[in-house]
Design brief:
Length: 215
């Protein structure tokens, strides 16, 4: 029988609170006997994690930034994501290419056509362009995110950006969600953590991916 993995990505501006929910979903899938690959971008392999450190902390121009992010993605796809999907795993990926369109494209103002070209080169498979089956977007007002982030930790090159940057990033996510509405699940991340979780869990139950018992 053909193995059918599931590829789910999670997106949102910094401070939108996706991490605990990704862990919650990993536990819920495992509790149902599914193998879970929990990973992140940039990162997810030894090489991609090194590239992540550079992208988050070293000064560079926006083309270099985009190239490093896609280089990390290529390594991650080849060594972690594709093998996991071939095994039939549930792949939970904290950010993927929508983040590049939102942060580098909309946030930094980098040429979207170049990003599309890179996306095609890096994500092309024999069955077409590799994209997540579903992308969960934690949508949050950048002003609320800024309050949540204030004083949390030493900010990286993105977290240190002003609210206006995150407004553009948000607009970038909205544009991606609009152009591929079927793939996106939009969650109102301004709600309480419990309410966000219920909404997310319910959505996955409706898809038949999780059983009705909330964890
Ligand atoms: P994280 O803190 O959610 O792990 O994400 C790391 C940072 O990297 C976050 O500020 C967003 C940024 N990022 C990009 O700018 N472009 C990308 O393609 C990805 C995946 C992340």
């Amino acid at each position: 029988m053909k193995k059918t993995g599931l590829f789910i990505s999670f997106e949102g501006i910094d401070g939108a609170g996706k991490s605990t929910h990704i862990e919650g979903l990993a536990a819920a899938f495992k509790a149902q006997g599914r193998q879970v690959t929990l990973t992140r971008e940039p990162g997810g392999t030894p090489l991609a994690e090194k590239l992540r450190e550079m992208v988050l902390h070293d000064a560079m121009d926006s083309l270099t930034e985009a190239l490093l992010i896609f280089a990390a993605r290529r390594d991650h796809l080849q060594n972690v994501i594709e093998p996991a999907l071939a095994r039939g795993d549930v792949v939970l990926c904290d950010r993927f290419t929508d983040a590049t369109f939102a942060y580098q494209g909309s946030g930094r103002g980098f040429d979207l056509r170049v990003l599309q070209q890179l996306e095609t080169w890096v994500q092309e498979t024999s069955h077409g362009l590799r994209q997540p089956d579903v992308t969960v977007w934690f949508e949050l007002d950048p002003a609320i995110a800024a309050v949540r982030l204030a004083g949390a930790r030493v900010p990286d090159r993105f977290e240190a950006q002003p609210v206006e940057f995150f407004q553009k990033v948000s607009d970038g996510y909205a544009a991606r969600a609009h152009s591929d509405a079927q793939r996106f699940v939009r969650l109102d991340a301004a709600q309480t953590r419990e309410a966000v979780w219920q909404q997310l869990h319910q959505n996955f139950v409706q898809r038949g991916w999780l059983s009705t018992r909330a964890t």
